[in-house]
Amino acid sequence: MEFLMLLCVLSTFYLLFILWKLFDENRDHGCYILDYQCYKPSDDRMLDTAFCGEVIKRNKNLGIQEYKFILKIVTNSGIGEQTYATRNVFKGEEENPTYEDSITEMEEFFNDSIEKLLLRSSISALGD
Asked: Where does the FAE domain lie (predicted)?
């Protein structure tokens, strides 16, 4: 009798699991990208070629193969003078970024990008 009861309980749970899976598969599929905004940092964070070289030279962990690889990437990618860096790179602290540096960088990105996206979309951030 106990075996029959256990079989019924397991069958019921299996049926409930299958029903939950069917229900869950049909949820939350309505995500559409209606617009986007690329983030462009301010011009004071633009790197020139000489400063890029200084940043690379500051890194003591790079060997000759890594230097060759970086040079190849920079020249083939067309990055040139249109490369931006975080503020901690300009301060020479790229090897030890702080939590505050990360939060500041995210806030700059979110504030700038979302503001421009909402303005372009004519949507008020206050929900008026």
From this structure: 25-124
Domain count, the chain: 1
For 26-76, write each residue's pLDDT tens digit: 777 677 777 888 888 888 888 887 888 788 888 888 888 988 888 788 777
| Exposure string for 8-47, b = 16+ CB within 10 A, e = fewer | eeeeeeeeeeeeeeeeeeeeeeeeeeeeeeeeeeeeeeeb
pTM of the model: 0.56
pLDDT at 125: 66
Inside any domain, residue 3? no
Rg of the chain taking only CA atoms, in angstroms: 26
Residue 90 in domain: yes
Q: Is 83 helix (H, G, I), strand (E, B) or coil?
A: strand
> In terms of residue numbers, what domain contains 99?
32-121
Residue at 38 is within a domain: yes
